Automatic annotation (TrEMBL):
Gene3D superfamilies: 1.10.530.10, LysM domain
CDD domains: LysM (cd00118), MltD-like (cd16894)
Signal peptide: 1-29
Name of protein: Transglycosylase SLT domain-containing protein
Family as reported in the entry's similarity comment: Belongs to the transglycosylase Slt family.
PANTHER family according to UniProt: MEMBRANE-BOUND LYTIC MUREIN TRANSGLYCOSYLASE C, SOLUBLE LYTIC MUREIN TRANSGLYCOSYLASE-RELATED
Organism: Ideonella lacteola
């Protein structure tokens, strides 16, 4: 039998330490048919996801930070009453049978979907059974989040099979990114993420947020079940899109065929979707039958939520919590930058063992919490010029803001920059929620060329063709229409590169001996360096 490594979870003793602060605890909380990049194994079964519409926030435990003196070990009057991390009003005995039961056993008892038994299920079972290392990585990652998902499903009265869905979507990797830009363990594409009120900007991407994405995914699955009245069809719609499933049902109805999941004509990925989930369900039910042993998981939360009151560097937050950066990012994968903005991030997630350490350490920390802040470009700038204005090296500014080569930073863009005495305040909520970073091509310097139309005039199109610019640009520079015509002897302005100016000024082309082309009559050294150019009058 292939034994999977056991994931270290908080012990009951450390839970007492973490819950010693509970008097301050309060509750808080793709395109269709796209393949998800979930793991290093390139031969993994294809995954997918597509989602829609927000609901109430999920519940998890919050540790209050402000005015929280550490309890004295000698103070016998300090007695903390443990509370349920998801339902704060319900007392909990950390040594009762519920806390000590294997989480996998709880998941098994919540299975409620009808089973399917097909060759596709057998094929998926075999695939997983032949890759114990992959299953090990998948279940170890999932151990961080499985209790939270199970709690949310129980509260909503939804079948526990859905707790296994992230295994299919992303191998329970909240940092997974698909080629179609679907992201997170539930795999949202940008547009559906916005539909579900998942914030996406340069600072954070809530499609990867463990709590927010779980809330949104379960909202959508619940809506799909109400729509189709069948969990297998709801899952097909989750993968393929509800419209596609409705059309497939309509086709079968018209042909007098059954309309259940196995009877519909679907793309291969959707056809494999429910069989893959069934295979994982079968492995969870009887791991020994597949030569596997699942890691032991206890039936209590893996993490607490700790409010963030001030901007703080990601590296410092991990250090104060005494967790590795890798572990911190697995629990807080929504962070896009090396700083956490308090105005845009209500809380961070930390393991039970480390939440108490963080609360004490941040209260006793001296010095700056954040070395980064946000700066809005006052005008369109080259990265070198922006770096000079904020007192950074161009290389660092480019790296932290992911500025592509040969690009300008457009006016109004928000850049992450080093804090300084004149930039020492926390980022505002408006900027934290709405920051954008836009680029424009850094075109070569342009020169202004003044022409005179010939005796028979000149069309805008012919001037544009000659100087290899667009007719709309010529029209803009001369305040006319793209299909217009210049009168004989009128002045025409174009902007061209230095190379084009020299060539065309020396030898303006003519289309025929009887038609005079516009001739260059003057050249100015002053010209815009890039971007759209307006006509300047002589």
């Amino acid at each position: 039998m292939k034994k999977l490594h056991t994931v270290r979870r908080p012990t009951l003793a450390t839970l007492w330490l973490a819950l010693a602060l509970t008097p301050w605890f309060t509750g808080c909380a793709t395109p269709n048919g796209q393949t998800t990049v979930v793991d290093a194994i390139t031969s993994a079964p294809p995954a997918a996801g597509a989602i829609e519409a927000p609901a109430a926030p999920a519940n998890t435990t919050v540790v209050a930070v402000d005015n929280l003196p550490p309890p004295s070990e000698s103070d016998e009057s300090f007695v903390a009453k443990p509370i349920d991390p998801v339902e704060p009003g319900r007392p909990v005995d950390l040594f009762d049978d519920k806390a000590r039961v294997d989480l996998w056993a709880r998941v098994r008892t919540g299975f409620a979907m009808p089973d399917i038994d097909t060759d596709l299920v057998r094929r998926s079972e075999q695939w997983y059974a032949q890759r114990p290392d992959y299953v090990q990585r998948m279940t170890e990652r999932g151990s961080r989040y499985l209790f939270h998902v199970a709690e949310e499903l129980d509260k909503r009265g939804m079948p526990m099979e859905l707790a296994l869905l992230p295994f299919i979507e992303s191998a329970f990797n909240p940092q997974a990114q698909s080629v179609a830009r679907a992201s997170g363990m539930w795999q949202f594409i940008p547009s559906t993420g916005k539909d579900y009120d998942l914030k996406q900007n340069i600072f954070r991407d809530e499609r990867r947020d463990v709590l927010a994405s779980t809330r949104a995914a379960l909202d959508y699955l619940s809506r799909l079940y109400k729509m189709f009245g069948d969990w297998h069809l709801a899952l097909a719609a989750y993968n393929w899109g509800e419209g596609n499933v409705q059309r497939a049902i309509a086709r079968n109805e018209k042909a007098g065929l059954p309309t259940d999941y196995l009877s519909l004509r679907m793309p291969d990925e959707t056809r494999m979707y429910v069989p893959k989930l069934q295979a994982v369900k079968n492995i969870v039910m009887r791991p020994e039958a597949f030569g596997l042993e699942l890691p032991e998981l206890q039936n209590h939360p893996y993490f607490l939520a700790v409010p963030i009151e001030r901007d703080i560097d990601v590296a410092l937050a991990a250090k104060l919590a005494d967790v590795s950066l890798e572990e911190f990012r697995f629990l807080n994968p929504q962070m896009n930058k090396p700083v956490i903005l308090a105005a845009g991030t209500e809380q961070i997630l930390l393991p039970y063992d480390n939440a108490n350490l963080f609360v004490k350490a941040i209260a006793n920390h001296h010095g700056a919490l954040a070395t980064w802040t946000a700066w809005v470009a006052p005008k369109t700038l080259r990265p070198a010029d922006a770096a000079k204005q904020v007192g950074m090296s161009e290389a660092t500014l480019r790296e932290v803001n992911r500025i592509p080569p040969r690009m300008l930073v457009k006016a109004g863009s928000t850049l992450l920059v080093h804090r300084s005495p004149n930039r020492d305040t926390d980022v505002s909520e408006q900027l934290a929620d709405n920051a954008v970073l836009a680029f424009a091509p850094d075109a070569p310097p342009l020169k202004r060329l003044t022409l005179r139309a010939g005796k028979r005039g000149e069309t805008v199109a012919s001037v544009a063709q000659r100087y290899r610019v667009s007719a709309s640009q010529v029209a803009q520079w001369n305040k006319t229409s793209a299909n217009g015509r210049f009168k004989a002897g009128s002045t025409i302005v174009v902007y061209v590169s230095g190379k084009s100016t020299t060539r065309t000024a020396a030898a303006p082309s003519t289309r025929s001996a009887g038609k005079a082309a516009a001739r260059p009559v003057a050249r100015s050294a002053a010209a815009p360096k890039a971007g759209p150019v307006r006509m300047t009058r002589k």
